Structure formats: C-alpha cells, structure tokens
Amino acid sequence: MGASGRLLHAVLMGAPGSGKRTLALRITKHFQLQKFSSGDLLRDNMLRDTEFGVLAKVFMDQGKLIPDDIMTRLTLHELKNFTRESWLLCGFPRTLRQAEALQRVYQIHLVMNLSVPVEVIRQRLSARWIHPSSGRVYNLEFNPPKAVGVDDLTGEPLVQREDDRPETLNERLKAYEDQTKPVLEYYREKGVLETFCGTETDKIWPCVYAFLQTKVPQIDQKASVTP
Ligand SMILES: Nc1nc2c(ncn2[C@@H]2O[C@H](COP(=O)(O)OP(=O)(O)O)[C@@H](O)[C@H]2O)c(=O)[nH]1
Ligand SMILES: Nc1ncnc2c1ncn2[C@@H]1O[C@H](COP(=O)(O)OP(=O)(O)O)[C@@H](O)[C@H]1O
C-alpha cells in the first residue's frame, strides 16, 4: 500500500549496471513492495530452456532488447499475480511502447531513476557475478561472496553474464541511450520521475530510503537504513 492506503505501483530505472537489482533487493527487504525483474524472468526462462527462453537468448546475447510485444505480454501476465500487492518493476518498461502499454493497464505512481556515470558502470560489470536462479548479484570489489565463486545462501556456483562482456555491453548501453532514455522523459512529463545520481550504491541508498519512507509502509517500522 502507498502512504494513502492505495496499492503503489513503482518503477526502478537506470542503465545496465547502475545498481537496479542491488537497490531493489534492499528496497524489498525494507518496504512492502513485491519486486518484478524482467531480466531475472528472462534468465529463468533461459535456464529452463522454455520456448520463450530460447528466443530471448538470441536477443540478449547480442545486447539487443526483446521485441516489445513479447516482453509486454509476458510482463503484464506476470503482474496479474500481484493484484493485491504494491509492486516495484525493475527493468521494465525499457521502451516508450512498453511504457504506454503498461500505462493502459496500471497507473504508475513513482519512477526512481538511477544515474551513474558510464565509466563506473563498465568497471562494475567487469566484476559482476550472479546466482542465476535467485537473481542475487555480487561484485568482486563491492559485495564479494563469502566463499569464492559460490552463492552465499545456496552454495551453488556463480556465473558471469555473457552479456556483460565489453562488446555486448556497448550494444546494451546504446540500446539504453536510444530506446530507454525517452521513457524517462515520458515519466518526467507525467510528474512521477525522481532521479538519484551517484557513483556508489551505499550513498544513493539512504536517499532512496528517505524518499520511500514518505510513500510506502516499512516492513519493520523500527528498522534503520542499514542495508
Ligand atoms: N563497486 C561497486 N559495485 C557496485 C555498487 N553497487 C552495485 N555494484 C555492483 O555493480 C554490478 C551491477 O549492479 P546491479 O544491481 O546488478 O545493476 P543493474 O544491472 O542495474 O541491475 C553488480 O556486480 C553489483 O554488485 C557500488 O556502489 N560499487
Ligand atoms: N523490458 C525489457 N524489454 C526488452 N528486453 C529486455 C527487457 N528487460 C530485460 N531485457 C533483456 O534482458 C537483458 C538483460 O536485462 P537486465 O537483466 O535487466 O540487465 P541490465 O539492467 O544489467 O541490462 C537486456 O539487455 C535485454 O536483452
């Protein structure tokens, strides 16, 4: 629920590697929001070799976006599971057509945009490791796993994302500039955009926390900003 008691629909945006997933995990730990990550859903389908996963891999491996109609249908289908809960979208919408399709079904109350310099992003993604089935994300410098190469909770192996290689990353950054940045303008015009700038998630997080405190109930009212 939002501060006014209504269900809250929020979106977290930012370039690849800007820290969306890292922040989304902190947000959902502290606030009553269900996370939906389009990238995690795609990778889950790839792991299970579904028809959709096989198709998505072709685009992801080239650093290209999945076609709008497929991505929108899949996301709106998943969101039906959250009809009684407030939610946070991470990685969707990424194009104007996706944003418009979402707007036809749901009112979006707030959009948080992470603005992180591109050289910081390149550095981070060269050291990103993920646990594919949970979406947990690590970084060898920032938040290394407790034991080298394995997930803290399950002990399963971590992997580096194929699309984090420098040449694919260039394509993804281009897709972000060309196709996703216009979505920020779309939400700015609607008056729901809030941008957080910085080079460190630990410095951005207290600002996001303070912002959300005025909008969303916390899971534990006595909890502090500690990640
Ligand atoms: N060095 C550093 N790495 C970070 C910081 N915040 C997040 N990361 C790492 O940067 C990478 C990208 O973050 P992630 O949340 O996956 O970004 P997303 O692609 O926007 O979802 C991951 O390896 C994170 O662990 C930070 O403040 N400093
Ligand atoms: N909303 C979306 N529309 C189209 N493609 C998407 C969308 N979300 C994720 N993808 C695909 O999944 C890839 C990885 O996305 P994601 O896991 O959100 O990572 P990142 O934010 O680090 O780029 C994208 O490069 C794209 O191919």
UniProtKB/TrEMBL annotation:
Cellular localisation: Mitochondrion matrix
Residue span(s) of domain Adenylate kinase active site lid: 128-163
InterPro entries reported in the protein's UniProt record: Adenyl_kin_sub, Adenylat/UMP-CMP_kin, Adenylate_kinase_lid-dom, AK3/Ak4_mitochondrial, P-loop_NTPase
Entry binding sites for GTP: R128, V137, Y138, T201
Pfam family, any one: ADK_lid
Alphabetic keyword roster: GTP-binding, Kinase, Mitochondrion, Nucleotide-binding, Transferase
An example Gene Ontology molecular-function term: nucleoside triphosphate adenylate kinase activity
Catalytic activity: GTP + AMP = GDP + ADP; a ribonucleoside 5'-triphosphate + AMP = a ribonucleoside 5'-diphosphate + ADP
Annotated region (NMPbind), positions in chain: 37-66
A GO cellular component entry from the record: mitochondrial matrix
Stretches for region LID: 127-164
Gene Ontology annotations of biological process type: ADP biosynthetic process; AMP metabolic process; GTP metabolic process; ITP metabolic process
Assigned EC number: 2.7.4.10
Positions contributing to AMP binding: S38, R43, K64, L65, I66, G91, F92, P93, R94, Q98, R161, R172
Top EC class of this enzyme: transferase
Reported function: Involved in maintaining the homeostasis of cellular nucleotides by catalyzing the interconversion of nucleoside phosphates. Has GTP:AMP phosphotransferase and ITP:AMP phosphotransferase activities.
Family: Belongs to the adenylate kinase family. AK3 subfamily.
Subunit structure: Monomer.
Free-text comment on this protein's domains from its UniProt entry: Consists of three domains, a large central CORE domain and two small peripheral domains, NMPbind and LID, which undergo movements during catalysis. The LID domain closes over the site of phosphoryl transfer upon GTP binding. Assembling and dissambling the active center during each catalytic cycle provides an effective means to prevent GTP hydrolysis.
Protein name: GTP:AMP phosphotransferase AK3, mitochondrial
Organism expressing this protein natively: Ursus maritimus
Gene this chain is encoded by: LOC103679957
